[in-house]
Structure formats: structure tokens, C-alpha cells
Design goal:
By secondary structure, the chain is an alpha/beta fold. About 35% of the residues lie in helices and about 15% in strands. Bound molecules: S-adenosylmethionine (SAM).
Amino acid sequence: MRFDVITLFPGIFQGPLQESLLNKAQEKGLLLINVHNLRDWCHDKHKTADDSPYGGGPGMVMKPEPLTEAIETVKNLRSNVKVIFLSPKGRVFTQDIAKELAAEKELILICGRYEGIDERVRESLVDDEISIGDYVLNGGEIPALVLIETISRLIPGVVGDEQSVIQDSFYSGLLDHPHYTRPAEFKGMKVPAVLLNGNHQEVDKWRRKMALLHTLRIRPDLLKIIDLSKEDRKLLEEAVQSPDLQLKSES
Ligand SMILES: C[S@@+](CC[C@H](N)C(=O)[O-])C[C@H]1O[C@@H](n2cnc3c(N)ncnc32)[C@H](O)[C@@H]1O
């Protein structure tokens, strides 16, 4: 999959894209990520990318000419490339939107700064606006990295064990179950016995029960939008009634 990012601060991408799984995925050719400096399309002596807002008021606005030229150049006549503007006014990013975008071959990500971009660029060239949550950051660079990393995890081969992606929180609508590793006892706290007895059916049942319970306790809104099977409902009822399965915050 190919990502083209248009930003005034390309340096922000250096660390995150050169480490760990994202770096390996680029080395393996699974991802092509081009970070473009918007200043390359600012043609005046001072390489100006912003100007004061019409109508007055605080802040600056990203000028339409450099952005338009940048998007058109990067698109390079490919009509099927989706242009996404990272914006707090966009639809809020979720795992389902990540799945939807992972089906694309290429995405162009526009990182705003200041008060945002000139509205005419948004109207004429942007296909989708995405927010990473109901809060405001200084710029779209970190939101763009959030999209790149989340979408990349869904591309086969990027994460070593694809099962782990499928079992992650949100993938099938629930939060993930708790995880433990050695030692079996740490500071007096024991790993649940069911995880030590080698019975995989029992382990799966316990994990499903814990995923259901955690979701009910922490994100009950998620349970309203997924179809629980009869077996799930039974597990959840058992979990709710079990005095051993309280969350730390409830004990
Ligand atoms: C300071 S913000 C501008 C906020 C804008 N004036 C507003 O209130 O909607 C500058 C840029 O950061 C990015 N940004 C800030 N918060 C974001 C969020 N929650 N999701 C995605 N992008 C965000 C956008 O690209 C935005 O244009």
C-alpha cells in the first residue's frame, strides 16, 4: 500500500517511520510511504505557506495555491487515489474506518497547521476528512501517523502473526482479554490457574468471558452494536455473577 503525506513538518515523521514494524514493512516492500514537504510548492522568496484569515480574527490559514499544486502533483493524474484531510471536523477514526481504508491501494494524507486549510481546497480536492478524536492538536502530522500505523497493521504481512490483529480490541467489536507472561507469581499476584493447565478449550472460554466482561464494564456502548451469540450471553452472565472476576476498579 502507498501513502503520500503532505506536510510543513516532514521531520516529525522520521522517528516513527524508521522504527519497528513500519520500518520493516517498508523494507519488505509492503508499504511505500512518501513524505512531501509542502514548502517545495511555495514559490515566493520566503516560501510562504500561510496567510491571515479573510474577515479577521486570530491565527493563520494555509494558502490554497501551494496545497493545490502539491495535491495535483502527487496525484499525478491518478483519479482513483483518495485524498484525506486530517481534521478535528472529520468523521472520527475507528477500527472499521481503518478496515475500509486498508482496502485502498493508495492514500494521500494532508496535514493541516494553524487554523487549517483554505476551505476551497477542502471543497475541490479532499475526498474524506478524518479526525482522530474530539480534541485539537497543533497539526495533522500525529493524526496522519495514527492512520498510517493503524491501517498498516491490517495489511497482510505487516504484523508477523495475523491472528494477533484479529484478536485485538475492536477488531470484532469487543475489547481484548487480559494477557499474562512469566513468572506465574509476581509480587504475590498469581496468573489465573486456567491459563496454566494446558486445556486450550478452557483457555479460549476464559479469554472470551474476560473480553465480554471488560467490554461490559469499560465500554458498554460497544456491546449495544454487536450481535452476541447465545453462548456469549451465557458466558457474560456467568462472568457478571462470578465474585472472582471483578475488575480492579470494582474491588
Ligand atoms: C490547531 S488545528 C486547527 C483546528 C481548527 N481551527 C478547528 O478548530 O477545527 C491545526 C490542524 O491540526 C490537525 N488536527 C488537529 N486536531 C486534529 C484531530 N483531532 N484530528 C485530526 N487532525 C487534527 C488538522 O490538520 C488541523 O487543520
